[in-house]
Amino acid sequence: MSHISFDNTEIAFASKSDADLNRSYLLFTMVSRTSWVKIGKRFTNIAFSLRLPISGLIKATIFKQFCGGENIDDCANAIKALGDYKIGTILDYSVEGKEAEEEFDKTAGETLDTIKRAAGDSNIPFCVFKVTGLARFALLEKVSAQAQLNTQEEKEWQKVKDRVLRICAQAAATGVPIFIDAEESWIQSAIDALADDMMSQFNKQKAIVYNTVQLYRKDRLEFIKKSHSLAQKNAYLLGLKLVRGAYMEKERERATAMNYQNPIQNSKEDSDIDYNAALDYCLEHINEIAICAGTHNEKSSLHLVELMKKFKVPANDNRVYFSQLLGMSDHISYNLAQAGYNVAKYVPYGPVKDVLPYLIRRAEENTSVKGQTGRELSLIIKEKQRRKKQH
Ligand SMILES: Cc1cc2nc3c(=O)[nH]c(=O)nc-3n(C[C@H](O)[C@H](O)[C@H](O)COP(=O)(O)OP(=O)(O)OC[C@H]3O[C@@H](n4cnc5c(N)ncnc54)[C@H](O)[C@@H]3O)c2cc1C
After folding, report:
1. Does the CB atom of residue 89 touch ligand 1 within 6 A?
2. Distance, CA of 310 to CA of 302 (rounded, Å)
């Protein structure tokens, strides 16, 4: 196994032309200003409600940076461009916030289409879905709270289970592993129960279904151990995507408003400690747990590389994957892939208007902290300077 360094921007941006790099530079410079992101967010929301023709502008800028296209066929270029550098694609239908039964059926159909597209294509090693794309949020909340469902809700819940089953059965039939994303803690119990059920059905020979564990929660290291015991007891393999977690503010606000203890770790350091401890635990039990490290954290990624060496897990062992989001942390993805590790990037897609909430989150994530240049922007600047010296 080669020595890994994430400093090499030449490898990180090898697939990007000077024009691509300049576009990214402009975009990250703009989103680095908190006030611009706030104004941009308000402007796009107003523009869409007034039906102003701004889709083209968004598509050429922020959408191009973070999304693969508006539909599966549109993503062909992104899949090929990543595949050329041995990086897999995870097609992520990123339409959010729908609440109608027809929309849930549509999302289930779309997810089945991603599985069909992935089958037999080594450039698409996983598929993914969010349970909130298939179920009403309030219903998931009720199931998670173990509240009594009325007859109508029972029927609705059965439909949700049917959608999840159809997707996982198709994944198993085509041999395409599938991630179930993690969401807010007050709907997560319902998601975990669905994931356990699917893993017990489909993970007998190999990990097909992966649950997601958010290590920013205080209770999740224990949860991993319990999930492992359950898998051992019922003789199936555990599939886990490990992330830190994306809903920290929402979690804190709800806990304060409803006066219960915040489930989130007391500090970033605590999240980091548990994340790396989760990697330790999974690698120690690699014969029973397949993992995907969904992280942009350099230290955690290097920690996993070290663990693979320690436990003599080959770089290309398909029980260990690294994953980042399209348009972010290419220095991690491309350097790991170049060294022979398994890497796949989430490639979000969907109609411009519908993926807007996803894009706004990416912009907000890249605003400057205390006036410092953000990491993505620093890397782009470094690569621009390197190219300038060469010319
Ligand atoms: C491939 C992939 C898949 C993902 N899937 C999911 C998913 O299914 N569900 C989901 O919720 N998220 C998901 N995420 C997002 C993820 O949870 C993180 O929000 C994001 O990746 C940033 O964390 P990091 O590990 O990359 O790195 P870092 O930048 O090192 O960590 C930032 C994270 O640390 C935690 N944190 C920050 N400050 C504090 C604090 N004061 N106290 C406690 N914790 C803190 C937060 O989780 C924050 O997001 C995914 C990310 C990737 C790359």
Report:
1. no
2. 12
Question: From ligand 1's centre to the CA of 36, what distance in Å?
Answer: 24
211 lines ligand 1 (CB under 6 A): no
- Nearest CA, atom 33, ligand 1: 244
Query: Starting at the edge strand that comes first in sequence, how are the strands of the sheet with 320-325 ordered?
Result: 87-93, 343-349, 320-325, 289-294, 238-243, 209-214, 178-180, 127-129
295 lines ligand 1 (CB under 6 A): yes
Give the residue, by CA position, lying nearest to ligand 1 atom 4.
294
Whole-angstrom distance, CA of residue 238 vs CA of residue 208: 9
CA of residue 245 to ligand 1 center, whole Å: 4
CA proximity to 352, closest of 60, 129, 89: 60
Kindly state if the Cβ of 212 falls inside 6 Å of ligand 1. yes
Is there a domain that residue 91 lies in?
yes
Domain CATH number, residue 94: 3.20.20.220
Q: Which residue range(s) make up the domain with 336?
A: 69-349
Question: Is the C-beta atom of 132 inside 6 A of ligand 1?
Answer: no
**Measured in angstroms, how far is the CA atom of residue 67 from the centroid of ligand 1?**
19
pTM across the whole model: 0.95
Span between the terminal Cα atoms of the chain, in Å: 33
Assigned domain for 382 exists: no
Position 369 in a domain: no
Q: Which amino acid is at 82?
A: L
Residue 357 belongs to some domain of the structure: no
Give me the number of domains the chain comprises.
1
- Per-residue model confidence as pLDDT tens for the chain (391 residues): 457 889 999 999 999 999 999 999 998 998 888 777 788 788 787 877 777 777 888 888 889 999 999 999 999 999 999 999 999 999 999 888 789 999 999 999 999 999 999 998 999 999 999 999 999 999 999 999 999 999 999 999 999 999 999 999 999 999 999 999 999 999 999 999 999 999 999 999 999 999 999 999 999 999 999 999 999 999 999 999 999 999 999 999 999 999 999 999 999 999 999 999 999 999 999 999 999 999 999 999 999 999 999 999 999 999 999 999 999 999 999 999 999 999 999 999 999 988 988 988 888 887 766 666 688 999 999 999 999 998 7
